[in-house]
Amino acid sequence: MTTMESLIGMVNRIQRACTVLGDYGGGDNTFSSLWEALPSVAVVGGQSSGKSSVLESIVGRDFLPRGSGIVTRRPLVLQLHKIDEGSQEYAEFLHLPKRPFTDFNLVRQEIQDETDRLTGKTKQISPVPIHLSIYSPNVVNLTLIDLPGLTKVAVEGQPESIVQEIETMVRSYVEKPNSIILAISPANQDIATSDAIKLSREVDPSGERTFGVLTKLDLMDKGTNALDVLEGRSYRLQHPWVGVVNRSQADINKNIDMIVARRKEREYFATSPDYGHLANKMGSEYLAKLLSKQLESVIRARIPSILSLINKSIEELESEMDHLGRPVAVDAGAQLYTILELCRAFDRIFKEHLEGGRPGGDRIYGVFDNQLPAALRKLPFDRHLSLQNVRRVVSEADGYQPHLIAPEQGYRRLIEGALNYFRGPAEASVDAVHFVLKELVRKSIGETQELKRFPTLQAAIAAASNEALERFREDGSGERRKSCRKSGFLNCGPVRRRTLQEDWV
Hints:
This protein is α/β, with parallel strands linked by helices.
């Protein structure tokens, strides 16, 4: 059977891969977000609730930045890996692979520096997470996501929208049905005013995914205790509340060792008259084991859906790869071959439009079989070849000396005059076919699936095709223009041509 260590480790590896690929939830993803489906423990709390101290107690190390205001400005994905007793503990960042940190003061500084690299040295926030893995014999296998502390007021240097931005970011993590919510509240404040409990109640009204943690039990007023909360009478959750006692600020200033702090915490609950009967279910060590067990349980339950989503993502990616086509070789000869193959695919579809199988060729046939003959039938040949006009042209060709037989020059003038009537419809038919062919080029490029991944090549083929069509049109009408200039009919043709083109196209 798969062990807890390998289950949580598997999810850790998938989370790291998702982050590298830009999938960390909360955004618009073209494909299904795998990050959203992975179980995780989201740590939620208001500012000064003791959230950082709880995390450091679970790890057993000082490693988180501290200060006033909003210290956590990017989500911190904290992956804990238990290693053999006696082994050297170390930390490693995803953005600095194969660079182990054994000095946890440097870990704290790197978290701060990496935050500043993305947000600048301002107090802005970013949803892009920082991945930190800690390998230690003093931890349990667990993954926690430290989120910015909820706040009600923007501090100096922050926009007023920061309050809503933080809440939106936190919600994007805790609203996931696979998310375990670690709601941290200080015991020296009324639980009804807890920001973490308020938010968890909205996203998890049944309390099935929420683990409540009470901090600062040792700072409560004398004569008071938090038994109503810890025993579930003030606010009931599906899971038991856990109380913790973190180091005081004086302990932090004195650099009290975390192992010593854990021992003092155990002694506090064991000797407390209020909480002694709950001592075996209190403290940061118990909390870590409880969360690890719950995370394993959720992962086991979600394995089928995770596998289903992975398979679905694979299918989506394979479909996209099929759509994009095979890889293009890097050498010039293979690239030339690929370009020629793509041009052949375009040529095949263009021919199908012309020769049948796809629409288009019928429009060209219609120009020559219907529109051109109809235009020719409307030409005034009856006037041009009338007996009166023939006599006039022949008489003008005779000049001052009449001929017994009609002169050749007269016949030529009659023929040239008739041909000039043809030029308008002929030119219009050339333009109409040219227009149809340009449309077929555009449609053929759009229908050539192989070209869709190469927009630059698409544009090049379109430009070359249109340039060739322009050249063919000039070749088809160049001699006609020369003839028009010689005969003086150049001013008549274009008007007639445009009129016919508008009618046909």
